[in-house]
Design goal:
Layout: E1 2-3, H1 14-22, H2 34-47, E2 51-55, H3 58-69, E3 75-79, H4 83-86, H5 91-94, E4 99-103, H6 112-118, E5 129-135, H7 148-160, E6 164-168, H8 172-179, H9 183-187, E7 192-196, E8 207-211, H10 213-225, H11 234-246, H12 251-266, E9 282-286, H13 294-303, E10 306-307, E11 309-310, E12 315-319, H14 326-341
């Protein structure tokens, strides 16, 4: 199967598998796993933060970050399509006791002007705004990238008002590739950042949360409360180290494949997409012109050996990654063209 559902489907590389087999391990709840400690130290250095914490999932990392910066009954400003709002089982409310105040954007990139209008001080009728959450790259907006100047303005203005900023940087390495900037420069102004090892970087499990040493000490306790205290986790951290050191250099190829696919999709009758808007490895496209629902197209593609998910009645998302090369992307485009044209379908017969 040519699997373009997400970059989460990547398999660990042979180097990762060897590292996992040979990893030196200890009990991480006691802080005694040397490979986890090395991963956390390296992640903190890459992010330019005092400390980092290895967590099983990005959702856990985001959940902990929100808890670090808020109290029950406060609000979190985020994009209307933010992962923390749409895809994390309402952990804003369930664990942190907060509500999201979403901002409608055209491309998933909030401006300070938009944010400033939504900030609320504590009063007799309104909950206090405590946190601003930005997602870089923005997943459902199509892998869009925050300009550095926008991040800096948001953080500068927020900090002047006593507000914290957390970055859901699940794919921040993709943002770094798109901007030709180091990750540490992109995340320098934010208070905490979460990034995934298990997406474009290709590790089998894990994400990192980075921030101040004080915040990460508290984060370790929240991780334990959420059931994320792992024991001999070095077998997982070993793959994460390989992902951090080797995988970022390959992300440019994923971006080039995504742009190629976007151009190809633009030439298929019934499919709507603006290739110029594709910045990283996520391609969103609209299929209503084919006369088929997105779920039906997904099913027909699966029959042809291609996996692409619907993300709405008429929208689909594909994500390029290192497990699907240029030839695989071209084959997926050919299958999409056949489905859109009704070739071999019930509609054509």
């Amino acid at each position: 199967m040519i699997d373009l559902r997400s970059d989460t489907v990547t398999k660990p590389t042979p180097e990762m598998r060897r590292a996992m087999m040979e990893a030196e391990v200890g009990d991480d709840v006691y802080g005694e796993d040397p490979t986890v400690n090395l991963l956390e130290s390296r992640a903190a250095a890459i992010a330019g933060k005092e400390a980092a914490l290895f967590v099983p999932t990005g959702t856990m990392g985001n959940t902990i970050a929100v808890k670090l910066h808020t109290h029950h009954g406060e609000e979190v400003i985020c994009d209307v399509r933010a992962h923390v709002l749409e895809y994390e089982l309402s952990m804003l409310a369930w664990f942190s006791g907060c509500v999201g105040r979403p901002i409608q954007t055209s491309d998933g990139i909030m401006s300070w002007e938009q944010i400033a209008r939504e900030i609320r001080p504590l009063g007799p009728h309104r909950a206090r705004t405590a946190l601003i959450e930005i997602e870089d790259t923005n997943n459902i907006a199509g892998g869009t990238v925050y300009p550095l100047a926008v991040i800096q303005e948001i953080c500068g203005q927020a900090h002047e008002r006593g507000l914290k900023v957390h970055m859901d940087g699940a794919r921040v390495f993709n943002a770094a590739e798109a901007l030709s900037k180091p990750v540490r420069e992109i995340v320098a102004p934010v208070d905490t950042v979460m990034f995934c090892l298990s997406k474009g970087l290709g590790a089998p499990v894990g994400s990192m949360l980075a921030g101040t040493a004080e915040d990460m000490a508290r984060a370790r306790l929240y991780r334990k409360r959420l059931g994320g205290g792992m024991r001999q986790a070095g077998v997982l951290a070993a793959a994460g180290l390989i992902a951090l050191e080797q995988s970022p250099r390959r992300l440019g190829e994923d971006h080039r494949n995504a742009r190629m696919m976007a151009r190809g999709l633009a030439g298929i009758p019934g499919i709507q997409i603006d290739p110029a808007k594709v910045q990283t490895n996520i391609v969103m496209f609209e299929v209503s012109g084919t006369g088929l629902p997105a779920a039906e197209i997904s099913w027909r593609l699966k029959e042809r050996g291609v996996l692409i998910n619907p993300v709405g009645a008429t929208w689909m998302r594909l994500v390029t990654h290192y497990d699907v090369d240029r030839e695989g992307c071209e084959m997926a485009l050919a299958a999409l063209a056949e489905v859109a044209a009704g070739v071999g379908s019930v509609a054509a017969s």
